[in-house]
């Protein structure tokens, strides 16, 4: 099999070589390229591949359809909305992801954003550098707050555990599954959850049910003192509606790690100029530890596929 990696996995060359050696010892060919968004170059690099590996770079139908031998797409990421799944499905190409590698990384940055928002960390840091004081920026504690979670998979559940350890109550939206209440999480309809939450944290994939779920109407259900954190996927939120709500004081602030497109963003993006908003360029998943966990998963995906089976199945 010819295996082609189209972008870096964020691990050392030494570690990558150790994984590649196990494949080449089995008679397989492995080639790695630096990421490019040039479709023509992607096609040239991928055209002979039996297996394609990517992380979060878009993989369009034009590239998939230009690979006559392609049998398997191995996505070193949790979300797969950047992959032309319809094209893969039409050709019977299998697709797996790397679910689980970033659970701790995303949950920890979510907690950091929540604490930064509650304690006005960006504002007091700027005031301190400018020779100022804490005046006007007396924050709040997470203990005793209610955190509403949209998406209680592995990451959402980990966030629930972390905020609960700080003394917060956890509630969640019941619209994605029929999960029963637990000692940790109580489920309820969206508007009820939003109206009761001091912090709303998003951890769901982009689907027909979740796309645009946070919009002017649903934001209107939130407390004016509430914060929104999005470390899920950008299209879950109507960015302009959220920016308008932040700038008009309808909610107190936001922490945003994901957008409709991958950074670098247009510098006119509304959330880059919204009040009381922490923005990061899609970094929640990226830690040294998570990159190493991811490599274990994606190379295990390949060995499983080569053995005639499939794990972490998307298609």
UniProtKB/TrEMBL annotation:
Keyword Transit peptide: no
Domain D-isomer specific 2-hydroxyacid dehydrogenase catalytic: from-to ranges: 17-310
EC top class named in words: oxidoreductase
EC number: 1.1.1.290
MF GO annotations: 4-phosphoerythronate dehydrogenase activity; NAD binding
Domain of life: Bacteria
Keywords, ordered alphabetically: NAD, Oxidoreductase
Pfam families: 2-Hacid_dh, 2-Hacid_dh_C
Recorded family membership: Belongs to the D-isomer specific 2-hydroxyacid dehydrogenase family.
Stated name of the protein: 4-phosphoerythronate dehydrogenase
Originating species: Megasphaera vaginalis (ex Srinivasan et al. 2021)
Gene label: pdxB_1
């Amino acid at each position: 099999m010819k295996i082609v990696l189209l972008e870096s996995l964020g691990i050392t060359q030494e570690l990558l070589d150790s994984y590649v050696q196990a494949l080449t010892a089995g008679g397989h060919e492995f080639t790695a390229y630096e990421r490019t968004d040039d479709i023509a170059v992607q096609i040239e690099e991928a055209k002979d591949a039996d297996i394609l590996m990517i992380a979060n770079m878009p993989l369009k139908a034009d590239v998939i359809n230009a690979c006559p031998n392609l049998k398997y797409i191995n996505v070193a990421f949790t979300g797969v909305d950047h992959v032309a799944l319809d094209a893969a499905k039409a050709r019977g190409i299998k697709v797996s992801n790397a679910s689980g590698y970033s659970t701790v990384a995303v949950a920890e940055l979510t907690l950091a954003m929540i604490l930064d928002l509650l304690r006005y960390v960006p504002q007091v840091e700027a005031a301190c550098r400018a020779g100022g004081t804490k005046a006007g920026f007396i924050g709040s504690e997470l203990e005793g707050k209610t955190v509403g979670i949209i998406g209680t998979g592995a990451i959402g559940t980990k966030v629930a555990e972390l905020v609960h350890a700080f003394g917060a109550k956890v509630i969640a939206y019941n619209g994605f599954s029929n999960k029963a209440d637990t000692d940790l999480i109580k489920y309820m309809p969206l508007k009820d959850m939003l109206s009761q939450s001091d912090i709303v944290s998003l951890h769901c994939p982009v689907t027909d049910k979740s796309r645009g779920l946070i919009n002017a109407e649903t934001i209107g259900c939130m407390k004016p003192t509430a914060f929104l954190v999005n470390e899920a996927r950008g299209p879950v939120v109507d960015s302009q509606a959220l920016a308008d709500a932040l700038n008009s004081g309808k909610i107190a602030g936001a922490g945003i790690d994901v957008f409709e497109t991958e950074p670098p963003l247009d510098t006119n993006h509304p959330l880059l100029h919204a009040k009381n908003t922490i923005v990061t360029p899609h970094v929640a998943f990226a830690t040294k530890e998570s990159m190493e966990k991811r490599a274990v998963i994606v190379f295990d995906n390949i060995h499983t596929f080569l053995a005639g089976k499939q794990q972490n199945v998307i298609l």
